[in-house]
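Below is how a single chain appears once it has passed through the pipeline. First comes the sequence as given, then the structure the pipeline wrote out for it. We keep one example in the README because the format questions we get most often are answered faster by looking than by reading.
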Amino acid sequence: MRILLVNKFHYLKGGSEKYYFELGKLLKDYGNEIAYFTMENDKNIETGDKQYYVNEIDLNNGSKLKALDIIYSKENYKKFEKVIKDFKPDIVHLNNFQRQLSESIIECCYKYKIPMVFTAHDVQAICPAISMLDSDKRICEDCINGKYMNCIKKKCIKKSNMKSILGAIEAKYYRIKKVYTKKINYIITPSEFCRNKFIKDGISQEKIKSIHNFIDTNGYNLKLEDQDYVFYSGRLSIEKGISNLIEAFSKLIKENKNLKDKKLLIAGDGPEKENIEKIIKINKLEKNIILLGYLNQDELKDYIRKCKFAVVPSICYENCPYSVIEIQLIGKAIIGADIGGIPEMVINNENGLTYKYDDINELMENMKLLFDNEDIVRKYGIKAKEFAKKEYSKKEYYDKLINIYNKVKIDNSKEEK
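Resulting structure:
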């Protein structure tokens, strides 16, 4: 089968790109021919497969005259048409295509009757701001069912009038064109939580399936140690709940004398870094909270295998974070916020603990429980690894995916008749 993989970024920018590249490898492993359609960028990764490019669009610094290209790009349509004629795909598998690649590629696929499968890595199909967070980073579902004026009223996209207006126009255009409800043949969500949001927004439950992301398990059978620290890895931003974790940890070591020397290690970078540094300094926590900065994959694995447990304190609708998958596969317990897709992965009192996503005290109590109970930590780690090996299996994922591909091909051929 010839599959054209579409994603606006062709370098490892985040979890969706990790999936995009791993999906390419997985499809090739089973004898499929693949090609990539993406934007030009100096950081693009050479895969050895056919790669087709369109000009890069910078949403932050681009020309205002080109702003409407994020809704429909004639140039991208023409280039995508050439790709279809050259590669002749049996399936187009869409990932993050909105904005930079635009709805034009959907129109092109639809015209040439190429079946489309879309992996929704976020909720942009529902929320113009992508994250279901308003401009103050609070959970917001006001745009569900096409009520996109709320995005403009709240200036949800980077607190910008212009960007919020454009985002709302784009969302409305997609809705009028029935991109998700009709033209895309099938949607995959990496969490049941996300699937339910799509159905609430009007997507037929018959054309959407939740399948957790997969991972290549090679390289994760590591020797475990317990160096008695809590570990966090991810973006240092408000929606990731990093300030909640710091507050809960600070309270933990101050209220429990036996835990006063415990450490929290934080890996990652982001806009909250300076604020975090100030909080650490003001509260004299330099010996307890250590910022590690950006870590490469091997360094990250090493810190995970040595931690007592990890915390995923998000206050936003996470889908199926690779950070959770990797920690579980290494065999460490997780305390996760009870929000989005996290509780589908961290099963409370089975392979970890969950807590009410914005409850500092409950997070603190869960950390205390794990620090005080070696047996529980060890049990959750073992269960987490068992869960990961079963739930994120490459073969299981491929079998489910190929069934979807075959289904949309059959359904598409029926519609042509």
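DSSP finds 15 helices and 13 strands in the chain.

See the next section for the split statistics.
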